[in-house]
Amino acid sequence: MTRATITGQAPGDQRAPTGTSGKSLGTSGALFGMSGEERQGVWRAWLLGACLISCICIVNVLTIRHDAPRLGTLPPAIWEASSALVTMMVFALPAAVALWTTRTSPRWWKAAPVHMVAVVTYSVLHVAGFVALRKLAYLALLHEPYQFGPLSTEFPYEFRKDLMAYGLASIIYYLSLRQSGRQAAELARSASAMIHFDIRDGARLVRVPISEILAVRSAGNYAEFLLEDGRRPLMRSSLGALETRLDEHGFVRTHRSWLVNPVRVTGLRPEGSGDYAIELGEVQAPLSRRFPQALTALRG
Asked: 101 and 85 in contact (C-beta within 8 Å)?
């Protein structure tokens, strides 16, 4: 049997793909199913957005105060503060879409309708929220009713601004989440470099760092380890048994006969019909469309 033509599947190799420690890929049992890295990325983006909104509000109040001194300071402050408070809450919408985008990397024709629905919802919630807050503030502080104006003209005006705000927020969330993902991958690579795995190749023991294992593939009653230095030691074991042991180190089942080390992935190439070729430097591994969670994990 030559290693170039190995295609056999190890017995009992029928397990569904799972993520770290047997949990679903992309989750860690954390709040709303977000991993620690995702929470960090969302929180960082939200703080940046909140700072930008606060600065814009202050500038707007000062500008209105200068251009229309007869209005005083309180009405412009109510307008800007109510809009800012609601915006900080509805920022959850672009955050949710950015999470979905970074996890699944959808095609544009799938992402566009989601963004369209999200931005309309974002604007409706924003306008309804700040109008309600302004009505309450006017009655409590100015002792007069607040008039929003005709919905047919005022909502399109607000929607144009909300469209830009949603777009900017989406970009900030997406970039922040991607940055968190890259940082997590680097940390995983550093940690795995300190952990070794013992491969029993016949009577010989081959001890290698986890980070140097590119992938493992089934070879009948054996499993072949594809190492960074080009070696291909064989170990008598089913792929399913090795998946259980390597799962805690982040390895992902991408095919019924393949396990891949995500931190060593250098590229993904579509092969048609939902299948991909995984690039691991000079080594390639298959990614079957039957393992969509693996695609999500590798893209993340």
From this structure: no
